[in-house]
Amino acid sequence: MLVAALQMGPAGSSIAETANRIVALVDKAAALGVTLGVLPELALTPYFAAEIHADLDPYVSISQNKAALAAIMARAQLHDMALVLPYAEQTDDGLFNSMSFIHRQGSHAGTFRKMHIPGEIEPKPDAKITILEKRYFKPGNLGFGVYDVGAVKIGGLICYDRRFPEAYRSLSINGADIIAVGYNTPVMPGSTLGQARKSSELAITAGAYYTGTTIIAAGKAGKENGVRFIGRSFVAGSDGSILARAKTNHDEVVPAEIDLDRQAKIRERWGFSRNRRPTDYVLHETT
Questions:
Q1: Domain 2-280 has CATH 3.60.110.10
Q2: Which of 73, 96, 117, 207 is a plausible cystine mate for 168, CB 3.0–4.6 Å?
Q3: Across the strands, what pairs with 6?
Q4: What are phi and psi for residue 245, nearest 5 degrees?
C-alpha cells in the first residue's frame, strides 16, 4: 500500500487559493499510485494562532471551508484516494482545531478535534512569539476516534497531541491501522531548526514503536509571516524506522510503501494488547 505525507509550504492568501494547491498535491500523489494522503495541521490557512486577530473569518469561514473541503473531496474521490485534511472547524459549540477523515469514495468518514491545547490566552510581553491556541481553540470533545476510510482504519493526532504517549495508545486500543499526525510547528526562540525537527521525529517515531503502528506525519514547511516552520514531513514504519522524509521546504508529496501484514507480525511479536496492565496504570500514594 502506497501512502504519503502531503507537505505544505506557507499558506496562500485565501482558503480557496490554498485549496487549489492541495488539489494539485492530490493529483501528484495519485499519479504515483498513492491511496492515502495526510495533510498538515490547519492545512487550509496560515497558522493564525500566534497573533491577535480582530476578525477570524478569513481563517474559519464556514462557507469557504465547506467549498474547499468539497473540492478536495471530489478530487480525492476521482482518484479513489483517502485523505486526512486538518482545518479550523467553526461550530455552534466553538472553534476546534480539527481534521476531517475522507473516505476513498469521497464521503466524510469522521472528525478528530485536537485534544491537548498548548500555549496562552494573552501574548507574553517579552516573547518574540507566543502560541495562543488557548485563546482561539476549545479542547477536542470527540475522543480518539478511529475511522474506516476504505482500505484501512485510521485515527489522528494534531501537533501538540503527538507529545502525549497516551494519545498513541488510545488510538491503538481503538483499532487504528495507521495514525495520521498533522502539525504546524514553529522554531521557537532558544531552539534551532535541527533541534525542533529532532524533537518532533523522536515523539512520533516513539509513538510508532511503542504501539507497532505506521504513522504518516505531515507538517508545514518554510517561513510564514516571518516564522520558520519545521516541515520535514515523513512516514514512520511500525518498528519506528523512518521510511521516507521530505526533501524540500515547499509543497511536496512524501510517498512510502507500507506493509500492514508485516505490521501485524510486529504487533504479535511485541504482544502489547495481551500484556498491558491497565488496572495498574494509575497513581499510587506512597506511605
A1: yes
A2: 207
A3: 253
A4: -140, 145
